[in-house]
Design goal:
The complex is a heterodimer of chains A (290) and B (391). Chain A is α/β, with parallel strands linked by helices and 290 residues long. Helices cover 34% and strands 22% of the residues of chain A. Chain A folds into 2 domains: 110 residues, NAD(P)-binding Rossmann-like Domain (Rossmann fold, 3-Layer(aba) Sandwich); 151 residues, Rossmann fold (3-Layer(aba) Sandwich). Chain A is built from 9 helices and 14 strands. Chain A has a 7-stranded mixed β-sheet with strand order 3-4-2-1-5-6-7, sandwiched between helices. The two termini of chain A are 23 Å apart. Chain B folds into 3 domains: 156 residues, D-amino Acid Aminotransferase, Chain A, domain 1 (2-Layer Sandwich); 81 residues, ATP-grasp fold, A domain (Dna Ligase, domain 1), CATH 3.30.1490; 147 residues, Succinyl-CoA synthetase domains (Rossmann fold). In chain B, strands 7, 8, 9, 10, 11 and 12 form a 6-stranded antiparallel β-sheet that branches. The chains are: A alpha/beta (290), B alpha+beta (391).
């Protein structure tokens, strides 16, 4: 078991024949992901990496039965691509693209929601179910199969966290990089119940950062609904106010969205909060040996 | 990207959002010319910098004659203005805006930002104009009217009514004018990919008109590609030169107060590295994300920018190699130390793909001030010790 994706998930790639799309699609296929084709307008009918290329997502879905799309379309066109996926009946779009205009994502997410399509990202490393299915750009080799679910706003902190969990002798069920933009798809509130319901997952690591209040909402939800142990780290305790720390959404505006308030809320919800990402592995070991 | 008040008001004018008449000046002579053209009898001389709190800092003053305009322009142009938003070093004033004095009856606040929880723009209005909105939100939150607008339907009459009734504007003429004002401002927000728009104060004049007395705007950097008119308003003298230089090389850099330079891949890990340095008793000198494509050139540039800061006593390079293999990054670091004179100890932690090979490369290179670390915590501790001269 796992959440959202597994070895049977049929995946198409939007922006399949571009540089990024090609490189990462190949890496995903090597990992074992069931990529059934891709979409690049005006390249329909061709073959790429041994898989069929289609002009539209609708054609790709009709021909392959794909339910998930991995999106590498450049930022200026990414909202269009996401809405196309939603329109074609895709169930989950994993949006890797960095630098999407916020206004575009606002419309794209509204349309996706209307059509019942889930989204992950944008500006994220994607999702991986260890040793089964990788839809994204993370280094697959560090994710050993196991019983820890991971949700993270940051790409490299996802790797850091997963690596520590595995070094401590545990492993990952599914890891989801949700991205650090102001508007994102699936977040803690949607993913926590999925991990709670997943019999394979025994503990959850959540990695957040400054800006917005998703972690505060998560804390409230955890307190009332999550029975599995949760370990959390919030990046940006030492970040200055009013400065955007790399991610478009990582900014403390006025006195809102600080690491401190998020850490306090999580601690009050019974979460094991660590002050450095270097302590994630040890904390997981601690909560799992209780 | 942020713009000056006078530029925000140019955009307001384009959309018919009423503002007092005014004109920007780069010299004292131009300031007086502008004042003559405007006619008076009262003018406001306003420093143009990208920071709030200009009035309190002495950068906004009233003139009652052309002589006074001249005196004030002489005083303000070239001054280093310190406000609560500029930091103690302040900002050099290179432009002043000369504006018609207005007949202020009431002061309001009107702003539009993205409500991240609702995932749509929210219009915020308050009768407490002239005050910092964060302060109003903290002390008297009931005085802020918030109206979220679903962009798929746009600004409707009911949004406007919620605003005017919320603010207690009862005169029908005035209601109509305020709603028109807010509707135009919302159009600007959507059309121009605005991140933040703030008018504080928005005034009601004695004759019942609403005017934007101030204007603050920030734009979504990711959308500037489709707004060449906005991009053209960029004032690079207002931006941190190191941050700007870094961004030209695809690096994301923010300078901080501490002693330990940081070079990291990924924004989250970069913040996590700063937090870890702090956790083990050190102080980070900067945030630096080298991105997913760290190579010799970007690493060299990173070293160069970090070392411009004389406070830096050690550098912690913390890379978690994913798709990018660590052995290549190790070679990149060695290459970079040849390109840039790195005169402080450099602690290198490389983990992830091909980390053992990378450790071997660094060991064999045997460079005096390049010290390998085994993991994040070890690296942070070594960087702190090195900064104290204890390594």
């Amino acid at each position: 078991m796992s959440i959202l994706v597994n070895k049977d998930t049929k995946v198409i790639v939007q922006g399949f024949t571009g540089g990024e799309g090609t490189f990462h699609a190949e890496q995903c296929m090597d990992y074992g992901t069931n990529i059934v084709g891709g979409v690049t307008p005006n390249k329909g009918g061709q073959e790429h990496l041994g898989k069929p290329v289609f002009n539209t997502v609708a054609e790709a879905v009709a021909a392959t039965g794909a339910t998930v799309s991995m999106v590498f379309v450049p930022p200026a066109f990414v909202a269009d691509a996401v809405m196309e996926a939603a329109d074609a009946g895709i169930e989950l779009a994993v949006i890797i693209t960095e630098g999407a205009p916020v206004r575009d994502m606002m419309y794209a997410k509204m349309y996706a929601t209307k059509k019942g399509m889930k989204t992950i990202g944008p500006n994220c490393p994607g999702i991986i179910t260890a040793e089964e299915c990788k839809i994204g750009i993370m280094p697959g080799n560090i994710f050993k199969k196991g019983n820890v679910g991971l949700i993270s706003k940051s790409g490299t902190l996802t790797y850091e966290g997963a690596n520590q969990v595995c070094t401590e002798g545990f492993g990952i069920s599914t890891a989801v990089g949700i991205g650090g933009d102001p508007i994102i798809g699936l977040s803690y509130l949607q993913l926590l119940p999925m991990f709670e319901a997943d019999p394979e997952t025994e503990a959850i690591v959540m990695i957040g950062e400054i800006g917005g209040d998703l972690e505060i909402q998560a804390a409230k939800y955890i307190k009332e609904n999550i029975t599995k142990p949760v370990v959390a780290f919030i990046a940006g305790q030492t970040a200055p106010k009013g400065k955007r720390m790399g991610h478009a959404g990582a900014i403390v505006s006025g006195s809102a969205g600080t690491a401190k308030e998020k850490m306090e809320a999580l601690e009050a919800a019974g979460v094991k909060v660590v002050v450095s990402p270097a302590e994630i592995g040890k904390a997981v070991k601690e909560v799992l040996s209780k | 990207m942020n713009v000056h008040e006078y530029q925000a008001k140019q955009i307001f004018a384009e959309y018919g959002v009423p503002t007092p008449k005014g004109k920007v000046a780069h010299s004292v002579e131009e300031a007086v010319e502008n004042a003559k053209e405007l006619g008076g009898p009262i003018w406001v001389v306003k420093a143009q910098i990208h920071a709030g709190g200009r009035g309190l800092g002495g950068g906004v003053k009233l003139a009652k004659s052309l002589d006074e305009v001249k005196e004030l322009a002489e005083e303000i142009l070239g001054m280093t203005l310190v406000t609560h938003q500029t930091g103690p070093e302040g900002k050099l004033v290179q432009k002043v805006y000369i504006e018609d004095g207005a007949d202020i009856k009431d002061e309001y606040y009107l702003g539009i930002v993205l409500d991240r929880a609702k995932e749509m723009p929210v219009i915020m209005a308050s009768t407490e104009g002239g005050m910092e909105i964060e302060k109003v939100a903290e002390e008297t939150p009931e005085k802020i009217v918030k109206v979220a607008v679903d962009p798929t339907i746009g600004f409707q009459g009911f949004h406007g009514r919620e605003l005017v009734f919320g603010l207690g504007i009862t005169d029908k003429q005035e209601q109509r004018k305020f709603i028109d004002f807010a509707s135009k401002l919302f159009k600007i927000y959507m059309d121009k990919d605005v991140e933040l728009i703030e008018i504080n104060p928005l005034i009601r004049t004695g004759s019942g008109d609403f005017l934007a007395l101030d204007g603050k705007m920030g734009f979504d950097d990711s959308a500037l590609f489709r707004h060449p008119d906005i991009e053209a308003m960029r004032d690079i003298s207002e931006e941190d030169s190191d941050e700007r230089e870094a961004s030209e090389y695809g690096l994301s850099y923010i300078s901080l107060d501490g002693e330990i330079g940081c070079m990291v891949n990924g924004a989250g890990l970069a913040m996590g590295t700063m937090d870890t340095i702090n956790y083990v008793g050190g102080t980070p000198a900067n945030f630096l994300d080298v991105g997913g494509k760290a190579n010799a050139e970007t690493v060299a540039k990173g070293f160069e920018i970090i070392l411009k800061n004389p406070k830096v006593k050690s550098i912690f390079v913390n890379i978690f190699g994913g798709i990018v293999r660590c052995d290549r990054i190790a070679n990149g670091i060695l290459e970079a130390t040849k390109l840039v004179d790195v005169h402080v100890p450099v602690i290198v932690r490389l983990d992830g793909t091909n980390a053992p090979e990378a450790a071997e490369i660094l060991k064999n290179a045997n460079i005096d001030n390049v010290i390998a670390a085994t993991d994040l915590l070890d690296g942070a501790k070594k960087a702190v010790a090195a900064a104290k001269g204890e390594l």
